[in-house]
Design brief:
- This protein has about 675 residues and is an alpha+beta fold.
- The chain is about 65% helix and about 10% strand.
- The chain is built from 20 helices and 14 strands.
- The protein has helices spanning about 1-30, 30-60, 70-75, 80-85, 90-110, 120-140, 175-190, 190-200, 210-240, 250-275, 280-300, 315-335, 355-385, 395-415, 425-445, 455-485, 490-500, 500-520, 625-645, 650-665; strands at about 150, 155, 525-530, 535-540, 545-550, 550-555, 560, 565-570, 570-575, 580-585, 590-595, 595-600, 600-610, 615-625.
- The strands form four sheets. It has a four-stranded antiparallel β-sheet with strand order 3-14-13-12, with no helix packed on it. It has a four-stranded antiparallel β-sheet with strand order 4-5-8-9, with no helix packed on it. It has a four-stranded antiparallel β-sheet with strand order 6-7-10-11.
- A hairpin with a 5-residue loop joins strand 10 (about 580-585) and strand 11 (about 590-595).
- It is flat and about 75 Å long.
Length: about 675
């Protein structure tokens, strides 16, 4: 199988190289035959890339420990599901899977958009980007490398009796799906990037390329956000530190393109409706994809320390060179097209929906820059001063909490503003009910004793946004019933399905409110660490945990020692929980298995950290309010994203889309 895998990798390199040349020549000579052959080459490359992944997977399933990847990340006793997920557990395999997913997106784009006038330049860009990753997989980090032992007579094949096994932290159901979902989000932005480059290249700079890539952007944004939330869930239930987000450098690397992608999804509406922010949108698309490449550079370079990162690798500088070249070419392309990107309209009033979108984008970019600066500052300080200065969670929270609250406010304010300019009467009419709801919530929370300023603002603005969304739905339903009749539920269904983009966006905004409710709970976290003998207790708030026993045992995979805890609230028994420590036999790595009592009010999070020298159990108990709202908010948010991906029934929107499409096809190409 390794011969098939290596042959497939070589085929990907050859086919991508041919696709670049054929599409360039085909575009220059206006040869549809050459362009079509380039398209087919890119599609064939996706097929060969799939063969390479299948070949590597077959080696893992066969326990073929001749190969370094299999010996390093698998073992004979590893469960089948984790043998499959071990394919992307290592650096070489993960990059192979990354290349495969990128080619899936590339092939899908050139199949579904084959009649798009930008397709020659799109193929060139997609094939050129993929060629770099295929080159890396073939010659720099080939996952089909075999183990060898160096002897006096030279290297001889070496086959260990068993593999090292998969890191115990990665042996979790979430980690079997989290990397593919996250990678899909990362690589998915290559399609909007390719269309943006093609539009700048050919000077076809109307909103047609925006319309061609909106759903691709949404899909990538959906998967990247889902991957981030799944990563947070895994960290919460597996790492045993009591939280779901620690501003880890690799977490930050995923967050940054998600923030800029969010900004792009908002500002494209202004370009489509008003012909404004053309430079802004092109820059956002390019920045988002370059941040995705930067994320994989961070993961593989070893320049930052992270539980998520791979070990330092000798080929990291190649990623940096690719990133620098891609950024320089993108910037040059954007600068040389500035005259062609002139806005068709100007901002007419500060108090308008256009300015609301713009301010929202400024907040998103400010948050992105703050995360980028905090992530890279230790590296920069070490390079300049020879001393690494740690930037920890307090810095990120101090900067990003106010920015996040500003974004929450704009989530509610934006829909209440009119396009072009908002009159005093419309502001009074639209803002009265949400403002009353926010003020009433603030008053009630103060009455019940809440004093944390950020939490108060968050809950009050959450009420403001929920009322805003509710009123938007109610007004639409009322208008629909007045026009078409029918019941309330029927009008709601018809309203949403006619404009899935708008009302799916409101559902996403509601999910964001739920997320922020969960985030606000962090202001009230409590925890206690206690060394207990059987019969002794530790208390956090109204909760008490009592150590009953210290059971232990072993399995073929690991040894374990647990702490049997009785959880009570106000002396009322809630349940018995058994957090434990496990020692993996293959790797010798110790891990914590946490236990939680969770509801929508709070989580009681119990960790057994081990035994003291005198035999007492070290128990760490966290009281984390409102955590479940984070997971619920993520679910609602991404259900709303799915809704926005559905085609709407509004005939006017369809007519406008068809008109844009025809105009793009009829427009002459300018090279």
């Amino acid at each position: 199988m390794h011969h098939l895998g290596n042959f497939s990798l070589m085929a990907v390199v050859v086919l991508c190289g041919y696709a670049v040349l054929a599409s360039l020549v085909g575009a220059g000579k206006r040869s549809s035959a050459l362009v079509n052959s380039a398209r087919r080459a890119l599609i064939a490359a996706a097929g060969f890339s799939a063969l390479s992944v299948i070949s590597l997977g077959a080696l893992f399933l066969a326990d073929d420990f001749r190969f370094e990847a299999v010996a390093s990340y698998s073992s004979a006793a590893l469960p089948l599901a984790y043998k499959i997920s071990a394919i992307w557990a290592g650096n070489d395999g993960s990059l192979l899977f990354w290349t495969f997913l990128m080619l899936v997106f590339a092939a899908s784009a050139v199949i579904l958009r084959r009649d798009d006038p930008l397709i020659p330049q799109v193929v060139t860009t997609l094939a050129g980007v993929t060629l770099f990753f295929a080159y890396m997989n073939t010659w720099v980090c080939n996952p089909f490398g075999q183990l060898a032992e160096i002897t006096a007579a030279g290297p001889v094949p070496f086959v260990p009796a068993d593999g090292n096994g998969l890191n115990p932290l990665l042996q979790h159901p979430i980690m079997a799906i989290h990397p593919p979902i996250l990678y899909t989000g990362y690589v998915g932005f290559v399609v909007p990037f390719a269309f943006c480059v093609a539009a700048l290249w050919t000077r076809r700079l109307d909103a047609a390329w925006i319309a061609s890539t909106r759903r691709w952007t949404l899909v990538a944004w959906f998967f990247l956000g889902s991957g981030i939330l799944l990563g947070g869930r895994w960290a919460y239930v597996e790492l045993g530190w009591g939280g779901y987000w620690g501003w880890d450098p690799v977490e930050n690397a995923a967050l940054m393109p998600w923030l800029t992608g969010t900004a792009f999804l908002h500002s494209v509406m202004i370009q489509e409706r008003k012909g404004m922010l053309k430079v802004w949108n092109a820059g956002l698309v390019m920045t988002t994809y370059l941040l995705c490449v930067f994320g994989t550079f961070l993961t593989r370079s070893g320049i930052v320390s992270s539980v998520h990162a791979f070990a330092s690798s000798e080929f990291a500088w190649r990623f940096l060179v690719f990133l620098a070249v891609a950024a320089a070419l993108s910037a040059a392309l954007l600068v040389t097209r500035l005259k062609d990107l002139k806005a068709e309209n100007e901002l007419e009033a500060v108090v308008s929906r256009e300015s609301g979108f713009l301010f929202n984008n400024l907040l998103l970019l400010a948050a992105c820059f703050a995360v980028l600066w905090g992530t890279l500052f230790p590296v920069i300080s070490e390079a300049i001063q020879g001393e690494q200065i740690t930037v920890s969670a307090p810095f990120f929270n101090r900067v990003n909490v106010p920015l996040g609250l500003g974004l929450l406010i704009m989530t509610g304010v934006g829909p209440l503003l009119a396009w072009r300019r908002s009159s005093v009467d419309s502001l009074r009419r639209n803002f009265t009910a949400p403002t009353i709801a926010g003020a009433a919530s603030l008053g009630l929370l103060l009455l019940f004793g809440m004093r944390h300023p950020y939490a108060l603002i968050c809950f009050a603005m959450g009420a403001f946004v929920v009322v805003t969304i509710t009123l938007e739905f109610h007004r639409g339903i009322r208008a629909r019933r007045a026009h078409r009749g029918g019941g309330y539920l029927e009008a709601l269904t018809d309203l949403v399905l006619r404009n899935t983009r708008r009302y799916g966006g409101y559902v996403v905004h509601f999910g964001i409110v739920l997320l922020f409710i969960g985030f606000a709970g962090n202001a009230f976290n409590e925890d206690v660490i206690a060394d207990l003998n059987p019969g002794e207790s530790a208390t956090v708030g109204p909760w008490e945990v009592t150590l009953q026993d210290l059971p232990g045992g072993d399995t073929p995979v690991y040894d374990w020692l647990g702490a049997q805890l009785l959880l009570t609230r106000h002396d009322e028994p809630i349940g018995i929980y058994q957090p434990r420590r496990q020692l993996d036999k293959a790797t010798g790595q110790a891990t914590s298995e946490v236990r939680r009592h969770a509801n929508f009010r709070e989580d009681i999070y119990m960790v057994f950290s081990g035994l003291t020298d005198d035999g007492r159990a070290t128990i760490h108990v966290y009281r984390n309010p409102l955590v479940r709202w984070v997971w619920l908010g993520g679910l609602v948010m991404f259900l709303g994203t799915v809704l926005t991906l559905l085609p709407g029934r509004d005939p006017r929107a369809r007519a406008a889309s068809v008109a844009r499409r025809r105009a793009a096809l009829a427009a002459p190409e300018v090279a």
